[in-house]
Description:
- By secondary structure, the protein is mainly alpha-helical.
- The chain has one domain (19-166): Protein Binding, DinI Protein, Chain A (2-Layer Sandwich), CATH 3.30.910.
- The protein is 76% helix and 7% strand.
- The chain contains five helices and three strands; from the N terminus they run H-E-H-H-H-E-E-H.
- It has helices at 2-18, 27-33, 35-72, 78-131, 155-166, and strands at residues 22-25, 136-139, 151-153.
- Strands 2-1-3 form a three-stranded parallel β-sheet.
- Helix 2 (27-33) runs parallel beside helix 5.
- The chain is elongated and about 80 Å long.
Amino acid sequence: MKNLVLIAALLLSFSAIAEVKVGIVNIQKIIVTIKEGKTVNKTLEKSFKKKQELIKSEEAGIRKLQEKFQKQTAVLTDAAKAKKGAEIKGKIDAVRAKMMQFQKDIQKEEAELKKPILDKLKPIIDAISASEKVALTFEISQSPVVYASNKVDLTEKVIQAYDKKHSK
């Protein structure tokens, strides 16, 4: 009798596992598609363009110094060449350091601008996952579901719900 109950319990648990519905969402697609996300991306693009223009300007100045240095190479002493070469190298290193700092700044700004969106997305994803009766919801770029026989892409529903709830 015990074995019969155990077998029945196992069969019921296997049938429950077979019915598990897995939800997937693409957060990146959601952010670039929702109205608020588009505004964030425009802000980031403006910030990036300003920084990029500054770097291009400094690079152009370095190129002029290099060209001038190339023209003067024949008449400069070895000490003057070394000094001018070190000056140019110092400017190149400074621009590289500035580029790295700009990259960090943009990443920080992006995280700060997207955090409120992500905070508002979580309850929407939870609600849609519940209404679609999914047992688990995965963000596909972070933890891709290699295979699930019963998976549902919730991305479009999340986009629509977010814009409906948070449209300005």
